[in-house]
Amino acid sequence: MFASNIADVASKVNPLAHYWLWQEFLSDTMEAKYGIVFTVALLAGLTVAHYVVDYLASKAAAISFHGGLVAELVT
């Protein structure tokens, strides 16, 4: 049960943390017309492995969020 709760929290908080941070700082970045968008997810979001699926899924979500944010900012 404990491990299941950790997986549940990780799968919700890790991806949402990127959203919350950008919600806080994006308006200042847009006003300054300068900023750097980076995401720490490395290859973890692009691979699969036993016993860490929740962690890898949260990193895949971070990579997808990053790509979507960059696409919206460019257009």
Automatic annotation (TrEMBL):
* UniProt cross-references to Gene3D superfamilies, sorted A to Z: NAD(P)-binding Rossmann-like Domain
> What InterPro entries is this protein classified in?
NAD(P)-bd_dom_sf
One Gene Ontology term of the molecular function aspect: oxidoreductase activity, acting on the CH-OH group of donors, NAD or NADP as acceptor
Top-level taxonomic group = Eukaryota
TM region(s), chain numbering: 34-53
Is this entry keyworded S-adenosyl-L-methionine? no
Question: Which keywords annotate this record?
Answer: Membrane, Oxidoreductase, Transmembrane, Transmembrane helix
Read off the PANTHER family from this record: PKSB, RETINOL DEHYDROGENASE 10
> Of which family is this protein a member?
Belongs to the short-chain dehydrogenases/reductases (SDR) family.
Entry protein name = NAD(P)-binding domain
Which organism does this record belong to? Penicillium roqueforti (strain FM164)
